[in-house]
Request: fold
Amino acid sequence: MSAPAGLCCKPGGFHIDPVRPVDRALITHGHSDHARPGHGRVLATQETLDMMRLRYGDNFAGSTQAIAYGETVRLGDVTVSCHPAGHVLGSAQMAVTCKDICIVASGDYKDAHDPTCTPFEVVPCDVFITEATFGLPVFRHGDAANEVKKLLASVALFPERAHLVGAYSLGKAQRVIKLIRQAGYDAPIYLHGAMETITHYYQSRGIDLGDLRPVKGVRKADLAGTITLAPPSATSDVWTRRFPDPVTAFASGWMRVRARARQRGVELPLVVSDHADWDGLCATIGATGAGEIWVTHGQEDALVHWCQSKGLTARPLALVGYGDEEEEETLPPGESADA
Amino acid sequence: MNRFAELLDRLAYEPGRNNKLRLITGYFREVPDPDRGYALAALTGALSFKHAKAGLIRDLIASRTDPVLFELSYDYVGDLSETVALMWPKSPDIAHNNPPPPTLTEVVTTLRTLGKSELPAQLMRWLDELDETGRWALLKLVTGAMRIGVSARLAKTAAAALGDKDPHDVELVWPGLASPYGELFAWLEGRAEKPVNRDPAPFRPVMLAHAVEDSDFANLDASDFVAEWKWDGIRIQAVSGKGDDDRIVTRLYSRTGEDITGSFPDLTPSLRLPGAIDGELLVLREGRVQSFNVLQQRLNRKSVTPKLMKEYPIHLRAYDLLSDGETDLRELPFEQRRTKLERFIAELDDDRIDLSDQIPFATWDALTAARADPVSAGAGEDADAVEGVMLKRRDSAYLPGRPKGQWWKWKRDPHIIDAVLMYAQRGHGKRSSYYSDYTFGVWTAGESGDQLVPVGKAYFGFTDEELLQIDRFVRRNTTEKFGPVRHVTHEPDKGLVLEVAFEGLARSPRHKSGVAMRFPRISRLRWDKPPRDADRLETLERMLRSETTIAPAEPATP
Reply:
């Protein structure tokens, strides 16, 4: 079940999250390294299809088919069922059953609490295909609510400065906003232009994010003591000059490691991850009951070693084309200076 | 401990001095005694216990984790303490009982008395009880490697801010205090009188000078002033006093009041008479003053070896006398203090301590000539270590801070070269969206004609408006990007010429060009000048030949 274009299921005649255009694709979630345009037929959750449409336009695929959590469809010689992955809104694991073997492709997932998407569900299977973005035991992400407390304490300590939070615009940003609201902060939160479309989509799906305003056009002095969310790349851009003495925060699982935070010039690292941490990966692998583990991308070596030490068959798939969405999010030309 | 860890964590990422102060003061306000006192001790380097070795930390983690996973993790993180802090698996018993994490006080007081054999088990218990950041701070503390960019002075300033006090006042009472500084915090919070400094050799706030401008001389009368050379060393205060047991206690302070006695055990025996000297720390070899580059070898040393003391003999050149025995002289006019100083130094009669010579002059023109040519005006062979001229009013009392009109410093004109901007790097904090750190180069003959060789880096000297102009130039003329660094067009007829001012030059095997500048800054932007007309390396080499010879080959730790 492996091919250069991504995960391929021959008996079912489809690929999962292919990196090149294919005839039939199953898409686990809307991040651009998993959801690419140009496929013939696309099967995904309604939310993922909507996000692809928002990002790539109406003609992003030849035809589309929505699948709901818990729903099963037949494709060729296999059946496919769809289960929540807890990664971002609409993210799904695809369970593929052929004869009596069940393989679960989990896409990107996390087992931690997230108020902006359906919680992760363990799907018992024979083969579990897992990511390993944070596949080292140094990655333990803790409670994201505590990280948001850190942000709010800083806003209280520096009321004359603006707080700029770098967060990936699909999923992370909305989760951070929701956590800020849950911590009791109800002042307006400002958005970089590149955040608006997806955030409004989240709101349209019934996720209450409170008073959100575009930062464009707001006077510099009025941004003192406020919080603005922006794509990570914008936080070191000329765009930041509109803010009074900004404190640069970054919400990411990578912030767990100091060198990574320092490299980016982050002053307030917030350890908030949309991927399972080390404990989450290990616990999930155990809970699926799978005897065989395939590791798609990230820090495969350590996770494969851990699986083998637990008596599981494990191998890295060494797929290319997937990565860390945060590292890859670049702004369209022109947008950075004027969003 | 977790709250202290949070502070260290935040400080480690915060580049701005004022913001660091706010964070530390906020911590002092929030955290009760004695925890905050031990935090102040940790930040000022006043904690003393035997540090744990890295080997012990490795053993601890090896007892709890898979070696392959540890190696992969260490390889990724790159820092032992941090790797251990992040991957430390809590013992299952602990997770069950959930005991409260140790306080900073508990950690510090336990470490003071703990036997070596008990340390591993105690560390394990704490590692189990703390969170990731807490473990990181604990390991930094016990291994003695804090490195969070906070000086003792900054920590004391933050404490002073708690009670709206002048940091000088904290510095004055500091030598009489001990951790956890209950007395100090009580005074700062207005609950008690100012602690009395019973130190027999206390620091006195230093008097500083204003920079003189050409236009100032019209209003100054030459006969009101005396002049001395401004030596290019480290300004210090050397204080000796009688302790309770009648023995002489000697301390050396930096100009901000930091106790630096420990770095100069070769100077303290010479200060055997009670008194307080204001002077300059220099290195003298065979009676000749060495350059600042040489002196630098003696600064910020943790251990001072006999070899170091022999190769870099330390010397004190006395400018002023603040107290003579028990008598405070600071209210006296400078001229009278000077007479007492001359007598004091004569009585000491020590090779390591001498008097700063005065420069005879009757008119400003005469002093101008002396400043331009220190060799013939009395500085002789030491002229290279002269940084300029000091002017002191004959009647000036010794006042703390920078009082108006009393003392003036008149620096020598800096060296100037025209160099070409080669690379630009983004700044930190307020400047993180600006390309504000510049690497510049000069021409030298290469294999295929003239090429630019980098000779230095500067990140100040320009105005805010000029920063905007350079930033714009960098963004429009970038040829390549490496992370935060941009390669900027630098061709004979395309590029930006920077006028760079600097104080001195030293030979440096670490730089490709073989030279290193002291205190370089951008003094002007030469938009009018094509890069081909910028200076050549030969010009710098000529300057170098006229500078003092410097250190034997030994790594510098500035």
About this structure: Chain A has a mean pLDDT of 91.
